[in-house]
Amino acid sequence: MSETSDFDLKNFLPYLLNLAAEVSSLEFQTYYKTHYGMLRMEWRVLFHLGQYGQMTAKQICDRARLHKTKVSRAVAALESKRYLKRSVSDHDRRHEDLALTPAGQRVFRDLTTAAAAFDDKLSQKLTPDENAMLRTCLGKIAKL
Amino acid sequence: MSETSDFDLKNFLPYLLNLAAEVSSLEFQTYYKTHYGMLRMEWRVLFHLGQYGQMTAKQICDRARLHKTKVSRAVAALESKRYLKRSVSDHDRRHEDLALTPAGQRVFRDLTTAAAAFDDKLSQKLTPDENAMLRTCLGKIAKL
DNA sequence: TCGTATTAGTTGATTTTGTAACTAACAAGC
DNA sequence: GCTTGTTAGTTACAAAATCAACTAATACGA
């Protein structure tokens, strides 16, 4: 029985964070997966378009800190679901302006509502103080 | 632009948790990947064996909350690296008792040391109060 | 002791992700 | 104009995660 050190996985921050992230994501993930057949990256991209309006893939990459291939695939998937439309920019044809379709906006509103409800449910496990501090701590760790 | 609700991704707990988990894991992950060619699941399994001594794959599944296919593949990988040995149990030949080899124990000690140092580094971004509360909160969320 | 259910663990097929190389459009210097 | 460099986005291939089906050993009731 190795008592090599007093280190304990159960207190290892990356481990705890991963565990909490997994558990907390599962229910909401299941929601958009079963209701709209969407993946996490698709939800994130849809969210950014819904929240901030028309933008290019590059802008989404920067804002969401996502790699361009992830965004590219998510955009293609959302397009094939008719949740967004693209239009090549006139003055720079490398850019594609992305915008949600009415259908995409409906999905956005529904997911936003659902997300808010999930967040409330999670928050209720913690005191108001804990809630505030938790978000602060996570921000520090994620270097936001 | 859509002011559908006051919901903001930047405060959505699952999102923040995933972000913090990703960022905080990256450096350590790089360490055991480059030094020992190990995957996250392998590190977790190795850790459990190092910390708790000999156990079966099933016990690891339960303790680490991992699916059996993940553990099965991690065990196979660790075995091929000669970091663990398996021995079929006598009184129930479905069970395999797993234990680290001396080489595996050396790796365990090294990774444990590295993890502890890395955890310290992360902890320094937070006050002692925040540290304690953060771990409490994460525990609540992960239903530990 | 036979049939059924359960448990431990593995394997294979399918999906998803990650990495790197690629195309196309533009910009800037010469 | 032509080269060189940079940027936006896609594609192709490899690594990995997921899910379901499978084998083998045991338990347990009729």
CATH class of chain A: Mainly Alpha
Integer average pLDDT of chain A: 92
Identify low-pLDDT runs of chain A. Answer: none
* Largest beta-sheet characterization of chain A: 3 strands, antiparallel
> CATH homologous superfamily of chain A, by name?
Winged helix-like DNA-binding domain superfamily/Winged helix DNA-binding domain
The counted number of beta strands of chain A is 3
Strand order of the largest sheet of chain A: 1-3-2
In helices, the fraction of residues of chain A equals: 55-70%
CATH names the topology of chain A as: Arc Repressor Mutant, subunit A
Please characterize this protein's 3D structure.
The structure is a homodimer of 144-residue chains. By secondary structure, the first copy, chain A, is mainly alpha-helical. Chain A has a single domain (16-141), classed as Orthogonal Bundle (Arc Repressor Mutant, subunit A). Helix content of chain A is 65%, strand content 8%. Chain A contains six helices and three strands. Chain A has helices at 13-36, 40-52, 57-64, 68-80, 102-123, 128-141; strands at 55-56, 84-88, 96-100. A three-stranded antiparallel sheet of chain A has the order 1-3-2. In chain A, a hairpin with a 7-residue loop joins strand 2 and strand 3 (96-100). Chain A binds a DNA duplex (30 and 30 nucleotides) through residues 39, 41, 56-58, 61, 67-73, 75-76, 92-96.
